[in-house]
Specification:
Elements (H helix, E strand, L loop, with lengths): L2 H12 L5 H7 L20 E7 L8 H15 L4 E6 L10 H6 L5 E4 L23 H10 L2 H10 L3 E8 L6 E3 L13 E3 L2 H9 L3 E3 L6 H6 L5 E2 L4 H7 L7 E4 L8 E7 H5 L3 H36 L3 E4 L2 H21 L1 H23 L1 H8 L2
Helix pairs in contact: 1-2, 3-11, 6-13, 7-12, 9-11, 12-13
The protein binds calcium ion.
Length: 374
């Protein structure tokens, strides 16, 4: 903050409410998160919403996050906004959630924005970018680097309001039934891999397939797919992949800090009174912290458990393979930004921020991790 801004900031705090919007802006809280388009409804009115999700009912962590979100909103609103959560397939198919919220069949949804890449290409950047930013970096871009405003602008074109709904942290590279020793081993490999990662795999000779979470275990077991990526040890253990695939690869080059989303029908959001809008935004922010903490706290335990007690073979992708993925990532992104102006705007913002924040990281965290972690 500049000297002048700092003075204004302190004065703003001192004069209370007049200074609050400025103080919040100084702290990176966007105007939209205060009470933009505050609904004209009475503060006494109650609302009942449906949330459709891309997860199986009560799915660990991801579905749990949706249930917790509804619980927090209920508590904070003193029961004025009730949200009933539906698993994928209960009200609409898992990958039908976006359309359902757009058409107002449900007020809100939960998913990952790369599921909608076919309809909204630029949405992929708000899920994960191969060789992209990690969780703390991407949160910095979204909350304080202009990322969320771009996401809001993009989804507004589709009648939706997006909220950051969680982060998985860095993921694993996936489950395979054979070792990946060279690029040859990727030829024709049918692998579940959504988003830009899927495009990269295709360029590297593989065959990416988009399947929702509830179809993965049987898909892998029956040979519909040869390999799958999912999340990381904690969740992958719960999915049971260690029972049907032997090799577990690192790193998750394709999802270095994957973002989850809530999306709300814009008209339904805007008819909420301003306090309920704020409650919804704050509940989402709390889920974002909660989810990353859950994954980070539990991944190591489950990785050791699978390696030590279930015979899982931990492998790292050969450098040749990762380097090839990196080259293909540049090509895939270039094709996307050339074909879609909004994708170009988002990627310009993302890549500029990544370059900037990496300058900080390579002088601080990188030497720490290189030399001090054992
Ligand atoms: Ca994944």
């Amino acid at each position: 903050m500049s000297k002048l801004n700092r003075k204004k900031f302190l004065r703003g705090l001192a004069i209370g409410t007049i200074g609050l919007p400025f103080a919040l802006r100084s702290l990176g809280v966007q105007k939209s998160s205060i009470a933009q388009n505050a609904g004209k409804n009475s503060f006494q009115k109650t609302f009942e919403w449906k949330m459709v999700t891309t997860w199986p009912p009560d799915f660990p962590v991801l579905g749990e996050g949706c249930n917790l979100f509804a619980e927090y909103v209920d508590q904070m609103s003193n029961g004025r906004l009730k949200i009933k959560v539906y698993g994928g397939g209960e009200l609409v198919p898992a990958l039908g959630a976006f359309d359902a919220v757009q058409s107002n069949a449900a007020e809100m949804g939960s998913g990952v924005s790369y599921y909608w890449a076919g309809k909204v290409p630029a949405a992929q950047f708000f899920a994960s970018v191969p060789f992209g930013m990690n969780a703390q970096q991407v949160n910095a871009w979204l909350y304080s680097g202009g990322g969320l405003e771009l996401w809001e602008e993009l989804y507004a074109e589709h009648g939706l309001v997006p909220l950051i709904g969680g982060n998985t942290g860095v993921q694993m590279g996936g489950w395979f039934n054979k070792e990946i020793n060279s690029l040859k081993d990727l030829k024709g490999l049918k692998m579940r891999m959504p988003g830009l990662g899927g495009k990269v795999l295709e360029k590297a000779g593989g065959s990416p397939i988009l399947l929702a979470g509830n179809e993965l275990y049987t898909g892998l077991e029956r040979g519909v797919i040869d390999a799958t990526e999912w999340i990381g040890p904690y969740h992958d253990y719960k999915m049971g992949f260690y029972q049907i695939a032997k090799y577990y690869y690192t790193p998750g080059w394709h999802e270095t800090g994957a973002i989850l989303e809530f999306f709300i029908n814009k008209d339904r959001f805007e008819e909420l009174p301003s306090d309920l809008q704020s409650i919804v935004r704050h509940a989402a922010a709390r889920i974002n912290h909660w989810m990353l903490s859950e994954f980070e706290a539990k991944n190591a335990y489950y990785l050791k458990l699978m390696v030590n007690e279930h015979g899982v073979q931990l492998r790292q992708f050969p450098r040749e393979v990762l380097e090839s993925f990196k080259v293909h990532t540049k090509e895939a992104i270039q094709e996307l930004v050339d074909s879609d102006p909004f994708s170009k705007r988002v990627y310009d913002s993302y890549s500029k921020f990544q370059k900037e924040i990496n300058y900080w990281s390579i002088h601080t965290e990188k030497p720490f991790y290189n030399d001090l972690i054992t």
